[in-house]
Design goal:
The protein is α+β, with helices and mostly antiparallel strands and 354 residues long. It is built from six helices and 22 strands. It has a five-stranded mixed barrel with strand order 3-4-5-8-7. The protein has a four-stranded mixed beta sheet with strand order 13-14-19-20. A hairpin with a 5-residue loop joins β11 (236-237) and β12. The longest helix has 30 residues, at 2-31. The radius of gyration is 32 Å and the shape is elongated.
Length: 354
């Protein structure tokens, strides 16, 4: 009996000792622990930009934050495609397909085609455009010219640069053609919205997306102020009511910011015109003007179909591809200006603003 009592007492003593050890261990964890969190504001599928450890004193709750956060970070690192979270993801634009479609490379090396969400730019050939798709515009040749302008504008601004794309939970991540659907942000600006504001695009109201109301307000303002294609492609009429077709000569590109000091590198400031039609056009007597009224008058010059001509600000010898303004100072303002192109009758043929 005494032997059994000793055994029982020994067993109870062992339980008490184990309990004390457990309490001490739990107290050690609850008195001090570390939390780990990322400090990045953007979502990337390949890495965590920076990590911050925060030390907590005298908390009463044991923590598993460190292990769960590290686990979450590992999972994020393994992701190979963007997720529909609404967060922005950094990508590099490697190719511009047209005014509303780009090809991008993600930080993990994967390549995707992105259709800019909520907008539609004109097709670059007249036969692929539709009358009245852009409000009441029926001049399909003019729309095609603005499709080319939209592509050139996007190419000049985005190709080879890093941008952020943002998905929309309402629209979904991919469209009918399996392209990613996303807003594009460049230099902290909604670049997709800029295309609407500058009159390069219409709002694609045929689809559902969260920014539709905002984008439509930009479009209404562009239409009201005749910005971009909304002003250029309006049908104009003679006194007999016959429609006057638009010229096939368009302002193709404006390089308004020369390398270095603009005034010392005048010939790196230039305007490029292109004949997108099928017949040659004589530019004799045509003029280029800026917002201040500074004017370049074209000499006897014929622009062949599909060809371009570059008008440099400085001096030089005119050729079949290059003309020279002869100005001693820079013409185009880097912080905003407009190029106006008039034919020999003084009719506005095209304009290009930035």
């Amino acid at each position: 009996m005494k032997k059994k009592l000793v055994i029982v007492l020994g067993f109870l003593l062992l339980i008490a000792i184990v309990g004390c050890l457990g309490n001490n261990s739990e107290q050690t964890v609850s008195e001090s622990h570390y939390d780990i969190s990322t400090s990045t504001y953007e979502h990337t599928s390949t890495s965590i930009t920076s990590t911050t450890f925060t030390y907590y004193e005298n908390t009463s709750t044991a923590t598993s934050t460190m292990s769960s956060t590290i686990s979450s970070a590992t999972t994020s690192s393994a992701t190979t495609s963007p997720t529909n979270t609404g967060l922005r993801e950094k990508v590099k634009v490697i190719r511009v397909i047209d005014g509303d479609t780009i090809e991008v490379m993600f930080l993990n090396g994967s390549i995707e085609r992105v259709r800019m969400l909520g907008i539609d730019t004109p097709e670059t050939t007249a036969s692929r455009n539709k009358p009245n798709e852009y409000d009441s515009i029926t001049d399909l040749e003019c729309l095609a010219s603005w499709g080319l302008k939209a592509k050139q504008y996007v190419k000049t601004r985005l190709e080879g640069t890093y941008v952020y794309i943002e998905f929309d939970s309402m629209a979904g991540k991919r469209g009918y053609y399996k392209r990613l659907l996303a807003y594009v942000y460049y230099d902290n600006t909604d670049f997709t919205a800029e295309l609407i504001k500058r009159g390069y695009a219409r709002v694609y109201t045929e689809g559902d997306f969260e920014k539709e109301f905002e984008y439509v307000s930009y479009q209404n303002l562009a239409i009201k102020n005749n910005v971009g294609l909304w002003g250029a492609c309006k049908s104009t009429y003679t006194s007999t009511g016959a429609s006057v077709s638009s010229s096939t000569v368009v302002i193709w590109k404006v390089h308004y910011d020369a390398a270095g000091n603009d005034h010392q590198n005048l010939n790196d400031e230039y305007v490029v015109l292109k004949n997108i039609g099928s017949t040659a056009v004589s530019l004799k007597g045509w003029t280029l003007k800026d917002e201040a009224g500074k004017t370049f008058r074209f000499p006897s010059f014929v622009l062949e179909p599909g060809k371009t001509v570059t008008i440099h600000t400085g001096s030089g010898t005119n050729t079949a591809t290059d003309l020279y303004w002869g100005s001693g100072r820079a013409i185009w303002n880097n912080d905003g200006d407009t190029v106006y192109l008039y034919n020999s009758k003084g009719e506005l043929i095209d304009k290009y603003s930035w």
